[in-house]
Amino acid sequence: MWTRKGCVCVPETWTPVARSAITVPGPRSVVDGWEVSTRRSSAALRLSDASPLAKVSVRADPDGALAHALGVRFRSSHRRDGILVVGSGPGEWLLVGGVGAAHQIAEQVRGLAAGDFVTAIDVTHGRALMRLTGRDASRALSKVCAVDLSDAVTPEGAAFRTSVAKLTTDVVRDDAGAGTGEPSYLLHCERSSGQYLFECLLDAGMEFGVEPSGPTVDGGGA
Amino acid sequence: MIRIPCPHCSARNSAEFRHVGEAAPRPDPSTATPEQWRVYLYERSNPAGWTTETWFHTMGCRRFISVERHTVTNEIRSARPVGSTGPGPAEALSARGDAGSPDAGGQA
Ligand SMILES: [Zn+2]
Q1: Ligand 1 centroid vs B10 CA: distance in angstroms?
Q2: CATH topology of domain B3-96
Q3: Alpha-carbon dihedral angle through residues A97, A78, B91, A59, given to the nearest 10 degrees
């Protein structure tokens, strides 16, 4: 818990603080146990850090009970009860939910397994997650990603793993999560490469006027 | 650039894959002679023409796939999950032309 003494925040008791692999310039604040940038952008193209969101990696039989219960196959995604279920590989899913919800999501998944062998692992602190939103999001992303991002091939909800800026990345077309009616992509990669991918996307988006922004706290668009 | 129609992911740049090599039937370990193992491990026919090889989609589905490739023209006439004889689950998807220009997916 934090108390304000003058203009300095001092912890009354020691509380662990998590940090994203991505550094966004601007003022910082601790929200839900994460030290995040409070910088916001209203630019036409925004790249925001979404790393604090809960991320759970799930492996199971692609034709088993859990696959059936999740109702999402490889290459697609679906949002249910505030949790984005991404079919990130054959027999492999990525679940993205609100900050701090990872254990609850993992338990929920195990409950759906109906006795089948499944693994559900909290990878929140092992991965980086970012969101690119704006009218020119597809054009900017196309500079570092070879998959056709046209609406016909990669419609809302499409998910795939591919090379983005030569980095293995899970990409989800998730306009609904951004909630602005613009094209929006979630990009998920290893934590150690998070800052690199963030910088690459800022570089690719430069000609479209991209601006970085900190995580949005209200569920972060999961 | 070689475009490989991954049966799981659709057509992708070969840079997303690891080339495992020419596919050969694995001899039965309980009856194979050392000579048969040596041939299995090290000898390749390396034809100038059609060959069946294994590729691993490192940056995609992380599955091994079996690819028929012409070593002179790099034409690919089939790609299916290793061990399967039928078409892959995404056979139809390869027709819709994912994977854009040769230099996209670049930088770095
Ligand atoms: Zn693949």
Answers
A1: 7
A2: Folate-binding fold (3.30.2270)
A3: 40
* pLDDT of res. B94: 41
Distance CA A60, CA A73 (A): 12
Average pLDDT over residues B56-75: 96
Report the distance separating Cα A174 and Cα A185, nearest Å: 5
Asked if A143 and A203 sit in the same domain, the reply is yes
Which residues in B have their CB inside 8 Å of a CB on A? 8-9, 12-13, 15-16, 58-63, 90, 96-101, 104-108
Q: What is the mean pLDDT of each successive set of 10 residues along chain A, which is 222 residues long?
A: 60 82 94 93 96 97 95 94 95 96 96 93 98 98 97 96 97 95 97 98 98 74 48
CB contacts, 8 Å: B101 with chain A: 146
Q: How many domains does chain A have?
A: 2
Task: Name chain B contacts of A92, Cβ cutoff 8 Å.
Answer: 62
